[in-house]
Amino acid sequence: MAVVAYIETHPDQPEQMGRARLRFQPAVTTGLAAEVLVHNISATEFVIEGDMLLSRNDDLDVSLPYAGTVAATVVWASQRLRGCKFRTPISAATLGAAVLRDAVAPDAEAPSDGGAGVESFGQRLHELRVAKGLTQSQLARQLRVSEPSISHWEKDRSRPKTGRLEALSLIFGVPMPELLGYDDTETLRKLVDAAKEQIARAAGTSVEKIRIMIDM
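Above: the chain sequence. Below: its structure as tokens.
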């Protein structure tokens, strides 16, 4: 599941120029916020999807409901995705806040329902491993984890941490979005929709009158 959030600069704090802030509610004092999606937020990390000026090792202030501002760092970047890690793990109470409930990652021991017709992360990992000709034991040795960890990942009982995801992306030779299962077609549709809204505002017309053709 994902939740809508907003990336903004610090217009009220010149000394913070270049440092971004992530909010789970839009700020009412500035129009500089860009809408993004936050995926799989846990006590230690989360993934941001959207158009943003964030690079690896950039710092990010995260405004969490009932918890104030928490520092995070971008630890990997791939296309429209940014993997971030909290400097200090957030509390279970913060994860349980109602505004974040749809963004919280499944419990480590709870199997994912995945949804009918939707391939889960575990299924994708199993297929990539088999296609690479690796056993669970061999993959575990490459990642320096236990064999049961690989089994739990493939059964969607738990998810690997950010560093392990990066390693899996390299081992299988697939980009992070493909490994995580984000739909490129859906991402393109969102980009087109956002572009149509911006063009409509600039032209002073309605979105319905905007047509975009892509020559591919």
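Residues 11-17, 98-117 have pLDDT under 50 and may be disordered.
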